[in-house]
Specification:
Blueprint (H helix, E strand, L loop, with lengths): L10 H18 L7 H13 L3 E2 L1 H9 L6 H16 L4 E6 L2 E6 L4 E6 L14 E4 L1
């Protein structure tokens, strides 16, 4: 069995050995160290613009053989943005013959329907609608 030898006698030595290298490497690369707050803001802004599809909505799209074109997806995102500007929380967003129920604050599509499922023209649990 090998004997464990400690080459550090204090926490300061460990800090000096491992933490200072990171900041020194950042300086040698010409980059300033990035704070946690900056990284958090960057990640939040990246995800803030992305429209997500819930598991239920993804299953509905697949089951109903609905695929969005890039243009339709952009119009859906614009509709969600407009709903948010008006203070709508749960919105019906109509894009061509497709209907989407969207939780606006989380930018999540809750369910999706095509023209065959919207024949009844009844939509519940929404507080606004956007027709694109």
């Amino acid at each position: 069995m090998e004997k464990i030898t400690n080459r550090f006698t204090s926490i300061e030595q460990v800090t000096g050995e491992f933490l200072k290298k990171t900041s020194a490497n950042a300086r040698t690369l010409g980059e300033a160290p990035v704070s946690f707050g900056e990284i958090l803001c960057q990640k939040q802004s990246e995800t803030a613009s992305e429209l997500k599809f819930s598991k239920h909505a993804s299953m509905r799209l697949e089951k109903r053989n609905i695929s969005l074109t890039r243009e339709q997806n952009e119009r859906l995102e614009n509709g969600v943005q407009k709903a948010g500007e008006k203070g709508i929380r749960e919105s019906l967003v109509m894009v061509d013959s497709l209907a989407f129920i969207v939780n606006v604050p989380s930018k999540t599509v809750v369910t999706a329907m095509d023209q065959a499922e919207t024949q009844s023209n009844i939509f519940t649990n929404i507080d606004g609608a956007v027709i694109m």
